[in-house]
Write a structure and sequence with these properties.
This protein has four helices and two strands. The chain is mainly α. Helix 1 runs antiparallel to helix 2. The relative contact order is 0.19.
């Protein structure tokens, strides 16, 4: 079992942020191109950018074998603290206001 389970009781709140896939992928592609160039991935390999994006696109549908929405849902369900889910595209200020209302 993972070591993290020992700190879970210390959590006072959990926060889950999610945005629709098309917006998330568009932001990832933009960020990665700004960091590594128009078609080059993190390791300097042109193939790595497309591999990363392909992996990231699976978040909403894949199973627990990868970092996925499903896996994160299972992890959140094991926490004993209140969980705040913020889903959808909204301004940072809106998200901050939602979080501040929970604190």
């Amino acid at each position: 079992m993972r070591m993290g389970r020992y700190i879970y009781p210390a959590f006072r709140a959990g926060y889950y942020l999610w945005i629709p896939r098309d917006i998330r992928i568009s932001r990832l592609v933009k960020r990665e191109k700004e960091r590594y160039g128009s078609s080059i991935g993190p390791g300097g390999n042109r193939h790595e950018l497309s591999s990363f994006i392909t992996w990231a696109e699976k978040y909403d549908e894949d199973g627990i074998e990868i970092r996925s929405k499903r896996l994160h849902g299972i992890w959140l369900s094991r926490l004993e603290c209140p969980i705040l889910r913020i889903e959808g595209d909204m301004a940072v200020k809106e998200r901050v206001n939602i979080v501040m209302s929970m604190i």
